[in-house]
Amino acid sequence: MLEPPHDELSLFPLRTVLFPGMPLPLHIFEERYKCMIEDCVQQSKPFGVVLIQRGREVGGEAEPFPVGTSAVITKVTRLRENRLNILTVGYQRFRILSLLRDRPFLRGVIQILPPVQDEATKAYHLAKAVSQRLPAYVDLLAKMAKSELELSPLPEKPALLAFLTAILLQIRPVDKQALLAAETIPDMLALELCYLAREQRLLRAHIGIEYDLAEGAVPFSEN
User: Fold this and answer.
1) Are residues 80 and 144 in the same domain?
2) Residue 200 belongs to domain spanning
3) What is the pLDDT of residue 58?
4) Which of 70, 72, 83, 202 is deepest in the core (most CB within 10 A)?
């Protein structure tokens, strides 16, 4: 099998994990990232969004996790002081092979990860289990927010469902990073089932305590 070609990509370390198909608005105010975005716009190139593993998001240097997602710029709004508001959407997952620090912003030699394979029978079985759990999880989120959330019909393809679930899950960035770095769609779906079960338990417990407090009940006893 031929190895995917290597490429160089400008990198934007953030405290967020971007998935393919996920919209991501950004406010650009640091000079180095204004320069980076201008380069991307002029060359019609994406940049890479990577989760910070160590370091700071603003100023200084950040060490990113090795797997990220390229972001395609879909809209640029220019503001005062040359600041920018941009809209982006996640495109392809990639792995960083080496970091380049030859410019004010971080760059990397990267390898685009091959399209995820989701045709296996196992993927469809796991996707069915995720599609059964996801609506109940969204309902619990709506109760927590005291609002109404409407979930559109879920995609049938396991890969699309896996990425949608990863986007919807309200979990720690490091947990989302584990999903992004999953090698196969069955791996991602299996991990999402674990996260959904865990988060549903936590949400039910939290909602139950709020209900007890609203009713004047004491949720804990020392007896």
Assistant:
1) no
2) 121-214
3) 59
4) 70
